[in-house]
Amino acid sequence: xxxxxxxxxATMEIPINSNGDTGTLPEDDSLEQAAKLQWSLDEKVGSxxxxxxxxxxxxxxxxxxxxxxxxxxxGGTAEGIIPTSSIKGPAVRYNxxxxxxxxxTGLGSNMHHSSSSSSMTAEETTRGVAVEKLETVKKWxxxxxxxxxxxxxxxxGRGSRTVDLELEAQIEVxxxxxxxxxxxxxxxxxxxxHFYNMVQTQHALGDTFADxxxxxxxxxxxxxxxxxxxxxxxxxxxxxxxxxxxxxxxINTLVNKTMEDTLMTIKMYENAxxxxxAYRSDLEELSMxxxxxxxxxxxxxxxxxxxxxxxxxxxxRSDVAIKLKFLEENKVKVMHKxxxxxxNAISAYFAGxxxxxxxxxxxxxxxxxxxxxxxxxxxxxQ
Length: 382
Description:
Distance between the termini: 109 Å
Order of helices and strands: HHEEEEHHHHHH
Strand order of the largest sheet: 1-2
Helix content: over 70%
């Protein structure tokens, strides 16, 4: 029916007047209804087909930047090709599943902005670390210059230094005591080495006498007595070596650890004293100068530095005084025990009193190592 109606509409004659204008046509209700019906059918079919075609184009169609728009006038012969890449406007991303247009203009700009922000952050961090290191080097150089200037002034007698007479006397006594104790330690180690060699010689001599007593029947008794005597001396000598080694170990701990720790604190105290005097002299020089705005700012900064180094100096001076006190008490306690051990062990050994020598070791909780204990195990040798 539709085809017949449309053919009818196509074959209708359109009257034209003498001027070339179309005349007024009578209204045809059937033709109008057919046109409306055909338009609704085309709209439904075209809508469903257009949706599928658009989805297919968005999936596998050409790039929008490579397409062109052809424009031309109605009934004209001229055509204009306008590349879409020249069209300015926000790009869109079509979601075929939900039929939505999603603007993508901000994606590239956001990525560029994020990368630029991260690079700027890294650059600022590096710059901050460099500035911090530069400030540290600057402070260290200024502090070194002031301390060197103060040291030279003190050596040439042109600068003043802060002196604590009582503390300086105690420090000097400690240094002298350490030198003397180091000499005692050196001599005790020498005695240990010599006595160890003597014990080893006695041990070898006893073995030789015992072997000769077996091979010389006419001198068996004489060699046997001497072999027993050397073995007994060797045993007592090893016991005495245990006592002397304990004495040496205790003196070494006292000298090279306890005293050395106190001397390290004293060294820090002396450095703090030098810095304190350097900043004190700097403050005195600024106070004697002009009193303008710039000078007052420098004086205020110097006053703050002076106060900081003063507190550090006083804190370390207190630490040194406390350590010296405890060191003296510890030294007396340790040396009292070690000197008593050394005396009793030496006296018992040279008196030939084996029981007294062993009792001395038990009194000071000294355990002797077995003869083969000094040798490393097979696992340690690997």
